[in-house]
Amino acid sequence: MIVGHPMGAVKEQSSNLYATKMAEQGFVTLSVDLAFWGESDGQPRNAVAPEIYSETFSAAADYLGTRSFVDRNRIGVIGICGSGSFSISAAKIDPRLKAIATVSMYDMGAANRHALKNSLTLEQRKQIIAEAAEQRYVEFLGGETKYTSGTVHEINKNSNPIEIEFYEFYRTPRGEFTPASSSPLHTTHPTLSGNTKFMNFYPFNDIETISPRPMMFIAGENAHSIEFSEDAYKRAGEPKELVIVPGAGHVDLYDRVGMIPWDKLTAFFKKNLK
Q1: What is the residue-wise DSSP string for 76-100?
Q2: Are the C-beta atoms of 49 and 35 separated by less than 8 Å?
Q3: Alpha-carbon distance 274 to 261, whole Å?
Q4: pLDDT tens-digit readout, 237-269
C-alpha cells in the first residue's frame, strides 16, 4: 500500500500515521514524499509539477512491485488531501494501482482554478497567472524565489476558520515538521512561479475509466473540502463508496486517530486486494 501526504506537507505529517496504522493491520506500507518535497529529490524545492507528483505513485509501485515480499497484483493507494487527486491522476494510467482510497481530498486543479465554492473570478485567476509569469523572469535571472499559499505563520482576530484549522496542525507541535531540505519559513508553501501549473491539472477528467478498480472517498462531515470528494464520487465509475465522517473537519482526518475510519479502510483494502 502506497500512502501519499497532503499537499505542502511531507510524509511525517499524516501519511506516516496512516502507513503505520495500516501496517498494524497486516499490510506492507510505503509512505512517500512527493517529488520536490521532504526527502525526495527535485529542484527548486517546493516546486509544483502535478504530473511528477502523480508519477511518485507509479514510481512507488515500481519499487513495491519488485520486492520479493510483495504481490505486485495487490497494490493499493491512500491519498490524503492533495495526494488524493495525484493518486487518482496516477491510477487513470497505471492499472497496477488496484484500489484507491482518498481522505480529505483536494482537487488541486479545481482549487487553484476556481477556489473553494467557485469563489475565484476569471479576472482574479488571470491576475495570479500574470504575477507568476513575471516571477519566472525574476528567477530565471537568478533572483529570489517567491512562495505562495500554504499555511499562515500567525493567526489573529482577522484569521478565517480554514487558516486557523491548518495553523493548528502545521504551525504547532501537533503536526509541525521541518525537513532538512527546507526551513520553517518555507514549509507548506509552493513556489509562486510554479503554482499556476495546477490550473492545467484536471485529475477527475476520465476518472470513470479507473473502473472496475474500486475507489473509496473519505471526507469529514464539516470539511471545507468535502465538495471535492463529492464531485469525484459523482464522476467515478462503479464500484465506489463515499464515506462521510460525522463531526469531522478537513484536518481532523490528518491525525485524529479516534475519528479516522480505520475499520472502513481496512475492510476496503482487504476486500479489494485479495
Answers
A1: EEEEETHHHHHHHHHHHH-TTEEEE
A2: yes
A3: 20
A4: 999 999 999 999 999 999 999 999 999 999 999
